[in-house]
């Protein structure tokens, strides 16, 4: 399994022991989207397939990072793209 930090490893272990998780995929794809006339790319940390059939995309960040405006903006376009595909 691919992980790039101990924080990602901790999240991976949580998913591995979660009975609601059926499948775990590390760095499953590379997304591309045009955001404000700029081509953006993103590789999610993990994609979890839940027993319910839903797909959950996981981007691991330290708890204080989403308050950073630059990080918040980057997570916003990714989150919208995931929701458009019916993913959590």
Q: How would you characterize the overall build of this protein?
A:
The chain is α+β, with helices and mostly antiparallel strands. It has one domain: Trna Endonuclease, Chain: A, domain 1, CATH 3.40.1350. Helix content is 32%, strand content 28%. The strands form two sheets. Strands 1-4-5 form a three-stranded antiparallel sheet, covered by helices on one side. Strands 2-3 form a two-stranded antiparallel sheet. Strand 2 and strand 3 form a beta hairpin.
Percentage beta strand: 25-35%
* Integer average pLDDT: 90
**Spans of at least 5 consecutive residues with low confidence:** none
CATH A-level architecture: 3-Layer(aba) Sandwich
Q: Indicate the CATH class.
A: Alpha Beta
Distance linking N and C termini = 22 Å
Query: Could you describe the largest sheet, including whether it forms a barrel?
Result: 3 strands, antiparallel
Total number of beta strands: 5
By DSSP (H or I, 4+ residues per run), the number of helices equals 2
Q: Helix proportion of residues, in percent?
A: 25-40%
User: Could you state the order of secondary-structure elements as H and E?
Assistant: HEEEEEH
Shape: globular
- What does the radius of gyration come to? 13 Å
Structural class: alpha+beta
Count of the separate structural domains:
1
């Amino acid at each position: 399994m691919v992980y790039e930090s101990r924080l990602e490893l901790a999240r991976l272990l949580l998913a591995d022991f979660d009975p609601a998780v059926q499948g775990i995929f590390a760095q499953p794809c590379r997304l591309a989207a045009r955001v404000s006339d700029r081509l953006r790319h993103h590789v999610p940390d993990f994609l979890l397939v839940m027993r319910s059939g839903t797909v959950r995309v996981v981007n691991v960040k330290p708890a204080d990072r989403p308050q950073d405006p630059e990080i918040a903006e980057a997570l916003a376009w990714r989150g919208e793209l995931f929701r458009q595909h019916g993913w959590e």
